[in-house]
Design a protein that fits this description.
The chain has about 160 residues and is an alpha+beta fold. It has a 6-stranded mixed sheet, covered by helices on one side. Strand 5, helix 3 and strand 6 form a beta-alpha-beta unit.
Length: about 160
Amino acid sequence: MSEDFFPFIRLHLHKMEILRPLLEKRKQRNPSHYNMYLMRDTYSEDTCVYIWNPVEAVNGDLSDETWVVWLYKRMDHGTEINISGPDISVVSEQVIEVFRSCGLIPWSEGHLVNAVGRPITKMLVDLSLQNGNSIILHPCYQYSSSPEDTAKINTT
């Protein structure tokens, strides 16, 4: 994959620590993305992480408006896409246009999307359909708990 897809910038493995504070804040909403961050040492060369910070942040930190996209090239479904975005109820036209035009996601090819909220799902479905893809949705709910509460669960 390319290094950058303006305005997205590829985030290399040795710089991924910058994601920790942002994904910790977002983990109640979507624990999968925080877990993906924790598993960063297991990423293969086929996994790329890109960030886009649409607002100017202090000291180069990521803002609450930052978008994080994980792309993984799969043999069965094409590109696997995971997106962590701001806490929004509707994706803005600006964001839709950026995802439509930046070239980061190969809209006309097969892809599989995981762990995204409803507003982002709507954007992805619309962009996929506009590019001639068929869509299959498998909605699911995610739950998170603290390690202490998880340890108390009796699985026998």
